[in-house]
Every structure is written in structure tokens, then in C-alpha cells.
Amino acid sequence: MTFPVYFYIGYWRIHPQFVFEVLAYAIAFRLLLGRNIIKQDTITPSQRSSVIVGGMVGALLGAKFLVGLQHIYLLWQNWQLWLLLLLQGKTIVGALLGALIGVEVTKKMIGLRRSTEDVFVYPLIVATAIGRIGCFLTGLSDLTYGVATILSWGVDFGDGIYRHPAQIYEIIFLLALAILIQIRSRYQRQEGDLFKFYIIAYLVFRFLIDLLKPDFHVILGLSAIQIAWALGLGYYWAIRAYYHDRVASAHIASHRQPVVVELGAGMFTRFHRIGSKVYRWFDLDLPVVTDLRRQLDTQTEQHQLISSSVLDFSWMDAMPEVPPENFLFIAEGWLMYLPTSDVQRLICQMRSRFSGATLLMDVLGNIGQLGLGKTQFDRLGAPFKWYVEDEGEVAAMGLSPVKVASLPQLCPERWPFLITWRPPLRNSYLIVEAKIEPS
């Protein structure tokens, strides 16, 4: 096979990318207008038109912006080629994130509060898969091929080097994803859940598949696509903070003299968001952190900063004399950096001093030991050290779990799509709200 694989109509020679892009758009649009899709729609035609336009504009801008960033190195090597890529090129990840932003901005402008994205899931999957056929048949000039490989299914795109057919990998993934979404759609869900499942699954896949591509890595060894992946997941990762806010707000509202203690508080601003009615709020961290915070924040009798290591248990002496059940301790996003023995020591001390209090903690599942994220954090000198099989291991330390949510379910009423269908995935990142048992 010689790349690009052109199509001929008489004397006309048509580029494969053009052929399959046209097919992708046409089939996706037909699916979007299909009878079954329309029946699932929940908003008025005028609102739908506005959302579609907003999504299209966002997709166009996002696709162009990210392709420009992805090949930014050409700007000082060959700016004419960079401009050509900017005019002709596009990225699916950029289009997806741009469309997501465009849809949300449009909904805000027209006052639409309902989730509208589920209707786009299958058209997007089909269009992407068809488009990738065009990418594969285009060959080297499309820049979507993989690195060299000795595997038997490697493809020579014309330069004499057998490479990973990354485009084919993506088509296979999209077919599997469509099947999983179809299965998930049969169970109880909220509006927007299928789209969230789709976009998170696709962004994670693109982050991983880009490791097999000879791309230009612009920051910290990551490509522009991978940076976009991180930003896209960061949007959803922020929901974790929202979940902690909800738990803390509920605790404050349900106690007469509530005390909140953020362990390893960093630069969190949770007190300023939800702490106006708390009796006492303590942000505890190492001196280097609290010294910086004192330059940016103001201490009051209600809100105090404590300079101390969490493992220097003298900070416990500074706690006010209130019933133990009034205390909420928050350990957000850092316990996994401690050795298991240190986590056990901390919980042991809390059991002896604050039995009956509530501890809200993030824990990593054992599957995290195999993950890409672990490798990246190891390289940064911040390796993960503490993992659990499930919340049962947390209970074995002397805690009584009250409520448990996995990372994709931080707001259970909005995130039911990855609901424990595979325990390793469900337990990959847990947020555990637990009562501290007596020692």
C-alpha cells in the first residue's frame, strides 16, 4: 500500500482526508437528526440550535488553537508551514474541549440549566472513527502515526520505518467505548452522564496513546495534546474540592460549635468559601507554607493557621475544648504520599485524642501502583507510598466509614456512570468520610 491512498473519480484525484472528513460530518449530522436521537432530546428546537452553534464555534476555535500549540516549534523553524498547519490542521481533543466550553457558555447565555450533551455522544464517536480512517490512509503528512515498532502489525507509511498504527488503535478503542456506553445507558443515570463518560474515557485514552506518538513535547515532557488532557480532567478534578466543601458545609450546619481542621492545607481557600458560620477553623501545614499564607491571608480568632508537620502531634494541644464529635478533620489529596506506618501513627493518635470525630480523607487504590500517574509523580520526586485495596483497609485502621465516593463519583447524583462495575476502577481513588473509633 502506498500512502496517501488517493481516490479517483475519472481524472479527479481526491485526498483520503477530504473524503473521510466529509463522510464523518455527513454521517454524524444524519445521526444527530435521527428519529431515536430526537426522541431523547429534552430541550426546545431554538435552544438546541443555539447549543449546536455554540458547540460548533467552540470546536472550531479549540481545534485550531490546540493544533497551533501542538506544533508551536515550527513557528521559529518554518513559520509558513506552521501557518499552513494552523489553516488546514485540527485536533479532535481541541475540538472536544472547545465544543464543551462553547456549549457551556451558550447555555449560560440563554439561561439553559439542563444538561444537553448526551445527544452528541454517538455522532461524535462515529465521526471520530470515520475521520481516523482518513488519517490512516493519509500517511505521514497527517502526523497521527505512532513511533517505530517491531510488532508484526507495524505499518510502513512511506519512510521505510514500521510504526504503530495509532489511528487504528483509536478506531478499535472508539468501537469498544460505544459498546460500553450502550451498556451503561440501560441503567439509571442523570442527564449528561453518558457525555461525561465519553469525554473522560476519550481524554484518558488520548493521553495514553500520545505516548506512542513522536510528538513535540512542549512542557515537562508532555505534548500539547497531553497538556490539554490534563486541563480537561482538571475541570472535572475540581469537583473533588466541591465534594469536600459539601461535606464540610453539612458538618458545620449540623453541629452547635463546629470545628474544622484542614490537615496539609496548602493554599486551600475553603474557609473563605464556606466557613463563615464555623466556630473555629484551623489550616495546618509546614512552616514554609503557613509563612507564605500569612502574607496573603489574615488570621482571626475564628480562622487560625498552625505551622506544624501533621506528624508532630503537638498541634493537637491547640484544639479547642469542644466535644470530639464537633471536629471535622480534612486530609485532601496528600495522605498517599506518606508511608503506611506514618498514616497508621496519625490515625492512632487521632483515635486517642478525638474519638467520635469525623475524618474526611482521600486514598489511592492498589491499581494506582500500575498507573501512568505514579510514574510521572516519581519523576517529580513525589512518589505515592500508601495504597489500599478498598475502604475495608481504612476501617481496619480504626475508622468507621460513613460514606465513600470514588473519584468519578464525587457528586454521586451527577456522576453515576462508572459505578463500581469493576472494583479496581471504583477503588482507584476513594474519598472516605469516616468516624474515628476509640483506641
What does this structure look like?
This protein has about 450 residues and is of the alpha/beta class. Helix content is about 50%, strand content about 15%. It contains 16 helices and 14 strands. It has helices at about 15-30, 35-40, 45-70, 75, 80-90, 90-110, 120-140, 165-185, 195-210, 225-255, 270-275, 285-295, 340-355, 370-380, 390-395, 425; strands at about 5-10, 10-15, 155, 160-165, 215-220, 220-225, 260-265, 280-285, 305, 325-330, 360-365, 385-390, 400-405, 430-435. Strands 7, 8, 9, 10, 11, 12, 13 and 14 form an eight-stranded mixed β-sheet that branches. Strands 1-2 form a two-stranded antiparallel sheet. Helix 3 packs antiparallel against helix 6. The longest helix is centred in the middle third of the chain and has 30 residues, at about 225-255. It is elongated.
Task: Provide the fold topology.
Layout: E1 7-9, E2 12-14, H1 16-32, H2 35-40, H3 45-70, H4 74-77, H5 79-88, H6 92-110, H7 121-138, E3 155-156, E4 162-163, H8 166-184, H9 193-209, E5 217-219, E6 222-223, H10 224-253, E7 259-263, H11 270-274, E8 280-285, H12 287-296, E9 303-307, E10 327-331, H13 340-353, E11 358-365, H14 372-379, E12 387-388, H15 391-395, E13 399-406, H16 423-426, E14 429-436
Parallel strand pairs: 7-8, 7-10, 8-9, 10-11, 11-12
Antiparallel strand pairs: 1-2, 3-4, 5-6, 11-14, 13-14
